[in-house]
Amino acid sequence: MITMRMRVEELALAAEVSVDTIRYYQKQRLLPPPGRDGRLAFYDDEHLGRLARIKELQRRGFTLAVIRRFLAGELDPADEPLAAAVAGAEDAGDSGEELFGIDELARRLGVPQAVLDSLLREGLLIPRVVAGKPCFTPADVAMLTGGMRLLEAGLPLPELVTLARHHHAMTREVAAEAVELFDTWVRKPLRASNLPEDEKAERLVEAFRTLLPAVAGLVAHHFQRILLQVAQEHLESVGDTSELAAASADEAWSA
């Protein structure tokens, strides 16, 4: 069997990517280095196949870090559907959910995009990644609109950002514990089982899609109850009779 030998420009043309992309993938350890014939560097069918695989995984919404683990054999075939479910890539196009870029998000909110870019850099605005691109949904518009109402109510922006950073850090800590529990008690036992690979994958995805809304609902419900409880305790120490009556009525309605 004759192995094709290509220069980097020929590989880029065959794979429909840029030369810079190939260089970047090499730096990220996604693509093996070229072969050498003296001073001449050459690429072959293995490089072309690897680039096709990377593009396929990117289309499914995987990050480069996850793709690297797949290519290195650190994640097995049963993990691929699970990773796709986590990325939200499998049903992004079929769910009918509207997706748009950060420029459209800024337009709908009526704020400069630079403000949203800043929140994105801080990790306080988390996009959905679809086909390797950050996307937003109407739910993000509703969430940020709620934040703007807090500003309109008189809460200062620096203090709100500080609170958001603290909440982000604490939430990530809880999420990391939840993911570790899933990995220890669901994913690893299934991977170690004697079930066929396709059944392992199906059960992993089913477990993830069942547990994700359950955990999210528990966290949201608990936070709302704690927030109301703390507000009530605060008013009991500083509020007057009318404020306490209003808070009690609101708590009863929220329950």
Architecture overview:
- The chain has 255 residues and is mainly alpha-helical.
- The protein has three domains: 64 residues, Multidrug-efflux Transporter Regulator, Chain: A, Domain 2 (Orthogonal Bundle), CATH 1.10.1660; 63 residues, Multidrug-efflux Transporter Regulator, Chain: A, Domain 2, CATH 1.10.1660; 100 residues, no CATH class.
- It is 68% helix and 5% strand.
- The protein is extended and about 85 Å long.
- 13% of the residues are buried.
SSE blueprint:
Layout: H1 8-15, H2 19-27, E1 35-37, E2 40-42, H3 45-59, H4 64-71, H5 79-87, H6 102-109, H7 113-122, E3 128-130, E4 133-135, H8 138-152, H9 157-192, H10 197-238, H11 241-254
Antiparallel strand pairs: 1-2, 3-4
Helix pairs in contact: 5-10, 6-7, 9-10, 10-11
Shape category: extended
Q: Could you name the ranges where pLDDT drops below 50 across 5 or more consecutive residues?
A: 89-94
Q: How much of the polypeptide forms β-strand, as a percent range?
A: under 5%
Mean pLDDT: 86
Largest beta sheet: what is the strand line-up?
1-2
Total strands: the figure is 4
- Oligomer type: single chain
Whole-number total of structural domains: 3
Question: What is the CA-based Rg, rounded?
Answer: 24 Å
Structural class from helices and strands? mainly alpha
Query: What order do the SSEs take from the amino end to the carboxyl end, as H and E?
Result: HHEEHHHHHEEHHHH
The number of distinct helices, counting runs of at least 4 residues, comes to: 11
Span between termini: 71 Å
Major sheet description:
2 strands, antiparallel
Q: Helix content range of the residues, please? A: 55-70%
